[in-house]
Amino acid sequence: MDFQRMPSHFASPYALRQAIRAGDFAANTSGQAPGFVQCNLAILPRDWAMDFLQFCQANPKPCPLVAVSDQPGNPLLAAAGEDVDIRTDLPRYRIWQNGALTEEVSDISAHWRDDLVTFLIGCSFSFEEALVADGLEIRNVSEGVNVPMYNTNLACTPAGRFHGNMVVSMRPFVPRDAIRMIQICSRFPSVHGAPVHFGDPQAIGINNIDTPDYGDAVTIKPDEVPVFTACGVTPQAAIMQAKPDFCITHSPGCMLVTDIPNSKLAIL
Amino acid sequence: MDFQRMPSHFASPYALRQAIRAGDFAANTSGQAPGFVQCNLAILPRDWAMDFLQFCQANPKPCPLVAVSDQPGNPLLAAAGEDVDIRTDLPRYRIWQNGALTEEVSDISAHWRDDLVTFLIGCSFSFEEALVADGLEIRNVSEGVNVPMYNTNLACTPAGRFHGNMVVSMRPFVPRDAIRMIQICSRFPSVHGAPVHFGDPQAIGINNIDTPDYGDAVTIKPDEVPVFTACGVTPQAAIMQAKPDFCITHSPGCMLVTDIPNSKLAIL
């Protein structure tokens, strides 16, 4: 990676994906191609795919599906954008075997198989953009850190071999802004939709708000309440628990950037 | 009033209004003609009406206008329903002079003037019905009391001679239900819309949640948060403060029952 050659910002998802494919961009995709949907990635063998599809269907808030392969083995995802090749168009991938991380790579062509099914799952970047556009402050954005995420005691609906509790992200707001946040996020069910809880963390099994299970802690001011949203880490946690013999995910922060405008996800 | 003759329940707004007009029904309208919009009433002389219209326009959450007279002096409100005569179709009215309550009557025909303008303002009954239909418990309904209402430190936008702070109603919910309540109420901007606050009462100037300024206290369970919604008492309070020389309002709980289905108020 020659950082001298690396542009700091791509406006077009297509240009960004081409640069990733050519090895010219290998960083986090956060902030790139603003206005376009970024997705969490899960790739599973056909043998596991049906169970996982049912799990996502049964748990749409933590596992909102934006797109799925049209057939096993096809690495192209026209539904996600022009010339999208899931083997090369993310900056970084994780390879898992029997629930254990075995490798982190920038290209999965050598791992591709005819029975693999790709799942693209919505990501909070889309609704964060809508909140910022409305003038709300997103604390993890203003503090320049990853959003704090927590394991909860909220059980997902089990499906086949997949089960587990919901993982949530947390953003603090004063109540008036929390009400507006609920309205805006309700318009975006395919990126987790309305929050699942606000206020007392212990009510959903979070014992210490200052020590997130993933991501970074953020400041909660005295007049603010923590607002908890279902998180795309949930399906990854369920996969790790089910331990499929083979699986590929994106590396944290290295998403598939699609050609779908965020505004297209709004149901209202 | 012959209570032997008084039916306990009217299904049709028209039949209810005719019974009120005939003197056969003089009770609170709560629970009558379910499914139809009930309205707060304010009648002001033309000289005051423009200021009041501007005040409502500037403060749509506490003062959502459902209908206004087509011209001063016209007591008929076709927009509200078949044969609606505002002089006779409410069970009870209050007459105010220079900000003081001078009389409570069941017919205002003798007080009618050619310069009077009628304002119908949305009422929480409509959104409460939508919440109950969704399976939420409304505490003031389940405890059989009036909703608790509080003066706040939230200033309305002044207009002409009208100004004052917002009055809010309060309903307790667990956070998950509060989120659903915010979604449902957002669909009904003409009956106060989304709440204005939840949680800490002192943040909006309410010092004691157990002693409402109007209505009755309700139980707040340990896992619940109070949710505060702009209330139709606000415009009445602003009128009392402005002290117009003449004014007519409904008596508390004795609303105009219109032919407008509650569902017609939903914007989504």
UniProtKB/TrEMBL annotation, chains A, B:
The keyword Lipoprotein does not apply. InterPro entries: D-Glu_cyclase, Putative_hydro-lyase, UPF0317. SUPFAM superfamilies: PSTPO5379-like. It comes from Simiduia agarivorans (strain DSM 21679 / JCM 13881 / BCRC 17597 / SA1). Pfam families: D-Glu_cyclase. Keywords: Lyase. One of its GO terms (molecular function) is lyase activity. Its EC number is 4.2.1.-. This is Putative hydro-lyase M5M_11890. It comes from the Bacteria. Gene3D superfamilies: PSTPO5379-like (3.40.1640.10), PSTPO5379-like domain (3.30.2040.10).
